Amino acid sequence: MSSIAAPAKTHIVIPARFKSTRLPGKPLLMIHGKPMILWVAEKAQAAHFADDMCIATDDERIAHVCIEAGFDVVMTSSEHASGTDRLAEVAAIKGWSDHDIVVNMQGDEPLVPPLLLEQVKALLVADNESVMATLCEPIEDYETFHRPSVVKVVSQQSDNRQRALYFSRAPIPCDRDVVLANNQDKQAPKNAYRHLGLYAYRVSLLQQFVHWPQTPLESLESLEQLRILENGGHIAIAAAACQLPAGVDTQEDLDRLNAMSLANFQNPAEK
Fold this sequence. Notes:
Layout: E1 10-16, E2 30-31, E3 34-35, H1 36-45, E4 52-57, H2 60-68, E5 73-75, H3 83-94, E6 101-104, H4 114-126, E7 132-138, H5 142-146, E8 152-158, E9 161-168, H6 176-180, E10 193-202, H7 203-209, H8 216-221, H9 225-230, E11 235-239, H10 251-259
Parallel strand pairs: 1-4, 1-6, 4-5, 7-11
Antiparallel strand pairs: 2-3, 6-10, 7-10, 8-9
Helix pairs in contact: 3-7
């Protein structure tokens, strides 16, 4: 008699590293008197669709602050090359089922709307053949389109499903007619999209990912999601249901968030 598999659960994981080239100790930097990682964790806690959430870190200082605030913390290796590798270790430590879903929430984005976390999870649930899901938003201006720090994505719509074809730091897609005409309008193509760093993974993918060697395009572009495409995996993608506010990469970003009204950081139920 065959056993019936348990329903898939959804887990939110927030990877948090102390080391940062531009802002050392970034998760513990203060925003309105509270460490940034706690603002992020509270946003995750407000995502009621998830079964649980935790912070994954290799730093005791971050762990102490999060545990003191009542959040679940998983200590992980300091040797991980990517956030995806860290998530895979968390899934193994927790013993999550292959068909469970892990939503990766960036630890430096304290203004992420919980709606987007739910959207990326629902996107993966709706596409059984995809192993990962992510979001994007239109690029409106020429300067952003050409900035290498902005990751661009091109996708394909088929059978009511949209999937990523390629991610790049280069300005893609290229409007051939505009380039040949040497157009001086300096406008981004109408179908230019910026990739947003929100992901949902199946646990089975995470287990495979850590055993795949780094791929040529991943190494060239320094984009770990290309490892999945180069190994034949499908990535579901959709335009974000609402705007994703900018995260914290520099001191200027941190100053900007501290200058905002406290109401911007509170969840709707708290306002």
